[in-house]
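Q: Convert this sequence to C-alpha cells.
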Amino acid sequence: QVQLVESGGGLVQPGGSLRLSCAASGFTFSSDYMSWYRQAPGKERELVATISPAGGSTSVASSVKGRFTISRDNVKKTLYLQMNNLKPEDTAVYYCNRGSRWGQGTQVTVSS
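A:
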C-alpha cells in the first residue's frame, strides 16, 4: 500500500535551516507529482510546494519563495524540502502528499 514517511523536523532558531525528507513506497514514485503541505495550530492546511514527476518543474507558495526548495530523488524514492532562513511563522506540522495520500507529518518549530 502507499506509504509516505516524513522525517527531519525539529526545533530551530529563527534564521536557521532544516531539510525535511519523505520516504515513499507502494507506488511508482517517479510517475507522480508530489507536494509538501503544512498546518499551523488553528489554521487550515496549506500547500507549500509541488514538484513534477521528473523534477524539472517546481512551484512554491509566495510565503516561502526564495527560502524553501522542493526536490526529489526518484532512485531513492524520496521527496525533500530544504527550508532556509526559517521564521516563527513557518512553525507547523509539515506533510508529504501524493494525491489523496498523506504522511503522518513532522513537526517544525521555529523559536528562539
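The first strand starts at residue 3 and ends at 7.
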